[in-house]
Amino acid sequence: KTKALQLPKTLLSALSLCPVSDAEKLAGSIGKLIEYPFDTIKVRLQSQPHPPYYTGPLDCFRQSLLAPEGGLRSLYRGISAPLFGAAIETSSLFFSYRIAQTAVRALFPSLPQGEEENLPLGVLGACGAVSGATTSLLLTPIELVKCKLQYPVATTTGGNPPTYKSRGPLTVIPSIFRNHGILGFWHGQLGTLIRETGGSAAWFGSYEGLKIMLRNHRFPQGEQRDTVTGEPPPLPFHYQLLAGASAGVAYNFCFFPADTIKSRMQTEELGTSLAHGKNQVQSTFWRSGAELWRQQGLRGMYRGCGITVARSAPSSAVIFAVYEGLHGWYR
């Protein structure tokens, strides 16, 4: 009976850590501002038809800057939705990650107890996967709107680069609801679920694993814990940046094909449903993936991966550094 009551109490204890969510929101928003232009390039590379409009990331970047639809401003097209979403995503990821760890400790008393004690790395990866799966439900509608704003509505003929028609969230959101109903906002959910579940396991697992390695390197004779709180000393700032950067690379590279398929699903109807009327049939994850593989093979699955990994390293480093810094300040 005592064990049965332990889980709700510890979960309520974890839920009381809400002030830390301010750190998570700020960290997510700063990271999104840094990476968003590169994310726009990634979505345009992923979603272009075959044969492709762009020869690579640099060509896409150059044509976006020279485009008459806004130049540099076009790279920040649709920033409002993901900026709001980044705060939700990062808060949900870290918060769900802490809740999952608290639940595991309550269910398995033999595991290390207390926040200052590290769980086994495999358990931390599993907690990250649970966190990602939870966050995917919040993230899919936000990313759907973002992708529709980032990618062109119409294209020119003859394989020329696409032209843009100015659209805002207040145009896109009612259009989705009108054509596909409330469930239409979760179009591409399976791709987001695969990417976030596996990616978050890699994200948190890489971060925690490298932190352990760096801590052992920093304190080869063992670390001196705080005599009052019992917590270990914080890692140097550049170690936190290194661990965060490696986490970003692991997150984006491991499950990038799922993100590519999701982006194609969420942008495919922009040029068709407007032209042919509403209630168009939407592709499934597996059908879109099979079509992409048939047209472009493995290269198409990883189109835009290089620029994504490159921008994710500094963005993730900043997110973890800001989070760790503000988390320590709140405590």
How would you describe this structure to a colleague?
The chain has 331 residues and is mostly helical. It contains 13 helices and no strands. The two termini are 32 Å apart.
Name a few traits of the molecule.
single chain; 331 residues; mainly alpha; 13 helices; 70% helix; 0% strand; globular; disordered N terminus
Compact description:
The protein is mainly α. Helix content is 70%, strand content 0%. Helix 2 runs antiparallel to helix 13 (305-330).
Layout of helices and strands:
Blueprint: H1 2-15, H2 20-47, H3 57-66, H4 72-75, H5 80-107, H6 121-150, H7 169-180, H8 189-218, H9 237-254, H10 256-267, H11 273-276, H12 285-301, H13 305-330
- What is the ordering of alpha helices and beta strands? HHHHHHHHHHHHH
Total number of beta strands: 0
* Percentage of β-strand residues: under 5%
Largest sheet: none
Tell me the distance between the termini. Answer: 32 Å
Shape: globular
- Which segments are poorly predicted (pLDDT under 50) over 5 or more consecutive residues? 1-20, 270-279
The average pLDDT value, as a whole number, equals 77
- Give me the number of helical elements: 13
Q: Please estimate the helix content.
A: over 70%
Derived structural class = mainly alpha
C-alpha Rg, in Å? 21 Å
